[in-house]
Specification:
By secondary structure, the chain is α/β, with parallel strands linked by helices. The chain has one domain: Rossmann fold, CATH 3.40.50. A six-stranded parallel sheet has the order 4-3-2-1-5-6, with helices on both faces. This is DUF1273 family protein.
Length: 186
């Protein structure tokens, strides 16, 4: 596997109201751990639309990993001004990420026109990647469910793979962090 995408929920779907929410750091730790294991297995590119939430945080993790690993980041929003209706903090983060990405290209060189842009983005990502890392609950996928349904069909019809970071995996990251902090208080 050389190229993957990352999907997951938007901040509101996770009940995350600001960028200082401590849960974001645990999400990033879980993403980082999994991405490093993929890099060790030959991962070269992470490509995504850069949607606010899991995708944007994953992009930030990839930028961090680029300092130590040979990994590249591609951001392919479905249309121009993709981030224009997001809260300012996420707009700023998106603009920072596209400056740090190895490749940036909107799939449609026009602003939002219709839902087909999102649908075609989903199929484009499936076509261009070997698999997808999903951070979320498979039973309650939120907005990521639209692309996840298409990805599950790709698994059935091709060599496409889906890997999950589940709520239980996140709880384990939190427990490990608490255990580490408690052991260093002595």
């Amino acid at each position: 596997m050389k190229v993957i995408t990352v999907i997951g929920n938007k901040p509101m779907e996770l009940n995350i109201r600001n960028e200082n929410d401590p849960r974001i750091s645990f999400i990033k730790i879980a993403l980082k751990q999994r991405l490093i294991s993929f890099i060790d297995e030959g991962l070269e590119w992470v490509i995504m639309s850069g949607q606010m939430g899991i995708e944007l945080w994953a992009a930030q993790v990839v930028v961090e990993l680029k300092e130590e690993y040979s990994i590249k980041l591609g951001i392919f929003p479905p249309f121009l001004e993709y981030e224009s209706r997001w809260p300012d903090v996420y707009q700023e983060a998106f603009l920072q990420i596209i400056e740090q990405a190895d490749y940036y290209q909107p799939l449609y060189n026009e602003p939002y026109k219709a839902p087909y842009q999102f649908i075609n983005k989903d199929f484009w990502l499936i076509d261009k990647t070997d698999g997808c890392l999903v951070l979320g609950d498979e039973e309650y996928p939120g907005s990521a469910g639209y692309v996840l349904d298409k990805m599950k069909k790709a698994v059935e019809s091709s060599n496409y793979s889906i890997w999950y970071i589940t709520p239980n995996d996140l709880e384990e990251v939190v427990r490990d962090h608490q255990d580490y902090n408690e052991s260093h208080l002595d």
